[in-house]
């Protein structure tokens, strides 16, 4: 007579029930991997295509903005900064320079006037460091366009949480760090919902919601919503 343990194993595997369950589990897992992999591949394809087309089509605008910045004070055209990307990896992050040349040195003196009271991010609605051309390109988010190069390189995506500076990440809680689970983006859900007017904790909440429900169609929707958000300039400062 078979022991109870042996009989249980026999019923589970010899009769195929356990094996069938395992096959179903791995089949579902395999399908899920294919779906996620396909979405990432499509997202990357869109990133490469859009970034190349964007840089080519916007080249005349890039040249015009560069000349305006150079004529203003003779300083550098681009402002380079270290930002934190997916999984905490740091990468060089360019913007058209919209502030005076020594803006970072002046920042420490302006911290008390921070309009974001969360002490993690720094924003001022009337930042005295911004130049005349800087105010225009920031209002229309033109200063962010050099980041198309980061999208092409793969450091960023068209849509995703905005990349923070290392000093901000040092203040992150464990839940805040969820923003680093995916590639940062040129635009994001809170950028089209109020931009700088949205408190940091609400930004994190919206970013996490995006991460949990991301899809190609959601990205397209956010990109379309970015156009009126940029034209109205709401929350841009």
Automatic annotation (TrEMBL):
Pfam hit, one: Bac_transf
Annotated Bacterial sugar transferase domain residues: 43-231
Protein name as catalogued: Multidrug MFS transporter
Keywords: Membrane, Transmembrane, Transmembrane helix
Family statement: Belongs to the bacterial sugar transferase family.
Annotated GO MF terms: phosphotransferase activity, for other substituted phosphate groups
Organism: Uabimicrobium amorphum
Transmembrane segments: 48-69
């Amino acid at each position: 007579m078979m022991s109870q343990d042996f009989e249980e194993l026999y019923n589970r595997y010899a009769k195929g029930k356990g094996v069938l369950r395992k096959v179903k589990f791995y089949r579902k897992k395999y399908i899920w991997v294919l779906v996620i992999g396909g979405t990432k591949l499509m997202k990357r394809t869109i990133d490469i295509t859009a970034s190349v087309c964007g840089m080519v089509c916007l080249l005349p605008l890039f040249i015009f903005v560069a000349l305006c910045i150079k004529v203003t004070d003779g300083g550098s055209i681009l402002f380079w900064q270290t930002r934190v990307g997916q999984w905490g990896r740091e990468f060089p992050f360019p913007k058209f320079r919209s502030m005076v040349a020594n803006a970072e040195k002046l920042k420490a003196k302006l911290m008390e006037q921070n309009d974001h009271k969360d002490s993690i991010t720094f924003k001022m609605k009337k930042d005295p460091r911004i130049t005349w051309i800087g105010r225009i390109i920031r209002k229309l988010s033109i200063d962010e366009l050099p980041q198309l190069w980061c999208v092409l390189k793969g450091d960023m995506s068209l849509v995703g949480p905005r990349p923070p500076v290392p000093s901000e990440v040092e203040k992150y809680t464990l839940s805040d760090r969820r923003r680093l689970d995916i590639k940062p983006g040129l635009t994001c859900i809170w950028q089209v919902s109020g931009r700088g007017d949205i408190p940091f904790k609400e930004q994190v909440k919206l970013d996490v919601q995006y991460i949990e429900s991301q899809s190609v169609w959601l990205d397209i929707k956010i990109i379309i919503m970015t156009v009126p958000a940029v034209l109205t300039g709401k929350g841009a400062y």
